[in-house]
Design goal:
By secondary structure, the protein is mainly α. It is built from 16 helices and 2 strands. The protein has a two-stranded antiparallel ribbon with strand order 1-2.
Length: 406
């Protein structure tokens, strides 16, 4: 997800989509260089932890070990109570009431660090904080005490799942996050049937929101930002009464399928501007559809992204590259050959380079492997020829059977 368009959207920064948070306790100035361990060169005031978390998660998903400095930067952003703010320029200064911590940055950091492993102390504190700010309806708002919204509730569900918690068992006043999501799903007899609203509008009405729907599908399935292809039940056409989170997810996926059917992408409608393709939300929709098992529409929209999203990602930076990598992963596509672009290489280039020690250790390992290979070359070459003769055709057939279409 984009997690979603919040104050950052109003500031033309792609971040999270909730109510506008207060200003961060400190922010970079033109005279202050950004941390070398941070991914991207844009102002991190609203999305530093979010984009760092997505970058680390996407690298890990693609089989790349992120630089230690990048991981340490993320863990170092945590406040003493377990929460995360988008960006703390001076981590020596303790967090206080003016520090703009939020659920989205915190939940994203949990998902990234849980995937990397070895950070239980950080993730346990973060999850403890998230539980402490759960709303009475079972959901979460962007900030502690804010009204529950689909996007925030869903990204927290992903964090709970990432650390082995069962979201259905995380309750407040008897309500779980799934209960909160069900109240934000549009009934089948209304406009936008089956979609999720971000929040009720000022009149208390639910209005379909594609970004919230992508988030709501994942949340209702108990999934996080990373999901594999076809893990859920196949999406059904149409909308049925959502008495369970699973049915709400199926309805949401059907709504997204209809929204993507015409052009293969979602559209961004901003006041005073012409409608244009929404690359980020389309990538999120691909992940949601794949998680639900709607592999065909997910694949069609991924193909559209492969043809059209490269320039958007280059302009938008690490979080955008990460979204595309996660979309490719969800559908079984290769993020290293995404419409001719190596997304993993492009993402890695936006962040810190591996340390000299890591590079040297890698080179030493490669030299050892080369020496071992050279010393036994004659024998293994002969054995290899014999094996190829016997099983080459088998590999060819197997490769064709396993090949996936993007």
């Amino acid at each position: 997800m984009n997690v979603r368009r919040s104050a950052a959207v109003l500031a033309a920064v792609a971040v999270i989509g909730a109510a506008a948070p207060a200003a961060a306790d400190s922010s970079p100035s033109p005279s202050r260089a950004l941390p070398s361990a941070l991914y991207g060169d844009g102002d991190p005031q609203y999305d530093g932890v979010w984009r760092q978390s997505l970058a680390l998660l996407a690298q890990h998903t693609a089989g790349v070990e992120p630089p230690k400095a990048a991981v340490d930067w993320l863990t170092g952003q945590q406040c003493a109570d377990g929460s995360f703010a988008p960006y703390r320029a001076d981590t020596a200064k303790a967090c206080d009431a003016k520090t703009a911590v939020d659920t989205n940055q915190t939940a994203a950091a949990v998902q990234a660090l849980a995937a990397l492993g070895g950070h239980d102390d950080v993730t346990d504190k973060a999850v403890g904080w998230l539980k402490s700010v759960q709303n009475e309806d079972g959901g979460w708002g962007y900030t502690a005490g804010g009204a529950s919204d689909t996007n925030s509730t869903s990204v927290v569900i992903g964090a709970l799942t990432a650390v082995g918690e069962k979201p259905a068992d995380v309750t407040k006043d008897g309500k779980s996050p799934y209960d909160a999501l069900l109240t934000l799903a549009l009934p089948c007899d209304t406009d936008g049937a089956g979609a999720f609203a971000f929040q009720p509008d000022k009149e208390g009405e639910l209005v379909a929101n594609a970004d919230a729907t992508a988030a709501g599908v994942l949340g209702s399935l108990g999934k996080g930002l990373v999901t594999g292809p076809g893990e859920g039940a196949k999406a059904k056409a149409g909308c049925e009464k959502a008495d369970t989170p699973e049915q709400a997810a199926a309805n949401g996926a059907a709504h997204l399928t209809d929204a993507l059917a015409k052009d293969g992408h979602l559209t961004s409608a901003l006041a005073g501007a012409e409608d244009q393709p929404d690359y980020g939300n389309t990538a999120d929709a691909v992940v949601a559809l794949a998680a639900q098992g709607a592999t065909e529409p997910a694949g069609k929209s991924l193909a559209w992204l492969e043809e059209n999203a490269a320039d958007w990602a280059a302009r938008s930076g690490p979080a955008a590259y990460a979204q595309l990598i996660l979309a490719a992963h969800a559908t079984g596509a290769d993020p290293r050959d995404f419409g001719g672009t190596d997304l993993v290489e492009q993402l890695t280039a936006t962040g810190p380079t591996p340390s000299e020690e890591t590079t040297r250790a890698t080179n030493d390992e490669e030299d050892e492997k080369k020496d071992e290979s050279d010393s036994g070359f004659g024998v293994w070459w002969f054995v290899g020829v014999c094996l190829v003769a016997g099983i080459g055709i088998g590999f060819l057939i197997s490769g064709r059977a396993k090949r996936r279409q993007p």
